[in-house]
Amino acid sequence: MDFNYLTPISVGFFTAFIMGPVFWVLLETSITKGLRAAVAFDIGVILADVLFILATYYGSVKLFLSESNKEGLFVLGGTIILLFGVYSWLTRKKEEEKIEVTESKHNYIGLAAKGFAINIFNVGVLIFWGGVTIVAGPSTGKDPLSFVLFFSIVILAYFITDLGKIVIAKQLKVFINGKTIVFVKSLLALILVISGIVLIIGGLQAD
After folding, report:
1. Which residues of 63-143 form beta strands (DSSP E)?
2. CA torsion 10→194→162→21, rounded to 10°?
3. Which residue pairs, CB below 8 angstroms and at least 24 apart, start in 150-155?
4. DSSP single-letter state for residue 59
5. In this predicted model, what pLDDT tens digit does every residue of 81-139 receive, in sequence order?
6. Among 62-71, 137-146, 172-181, where is mean pLDDT lowest?
């Protein structure tokens, strides 16, 4: 376990604030249906994230087995995250589409299905987790337990941050408007772009 524990915690924290349908539907669900409903929705989202992480891991695990691939993995992962950030920047002013799944106020299974559906059909989420998985590979790839621990911390930090968002959602309601949405989207897209560039430079300098 040679990774810095602050790394997966940071990944989980910032992931919880990446703009997309999930972010706004989670806040909306908390405001209109309450804490338990929002948690149920979030569990569905996280299940989709876990599937994405497993898919990207098993699709690239062979790359992790070679020490000579480390620099290239950082460049590739950084490029994916950079492109995701650029895409987020270019689409920051677009209205987020919502995938409707029928559910009643107290149908927690339906709400979880809604969260799962919105996330699983978002290709950008798959691309994002692909970048994170590749970047994490050099320090976790040879040890499945290390990989599981790393992403367990990521998901836990992600979930705890979402719980915080759910609790304060009603207080944030007065601040949620068009200008605020664009500002936060722009800021987070910029963070992704800078993170991608840093990873690419780090990989190139290590060659």
Report:
1. none
2. -150
3. 150/3, 150/7, 150/8, 151/8, 151/53, 153/5, 153/8, 153/9, 153/12, 154/8, 154/9, 154/11, 154/12, 154/15, 155/12, 155/46, 155/49, 155/50
4. H
5. 788 778 778 877 765 444 444 444 558 898 899 889 888 876 677 778 887 887 776 66
6. 62-71
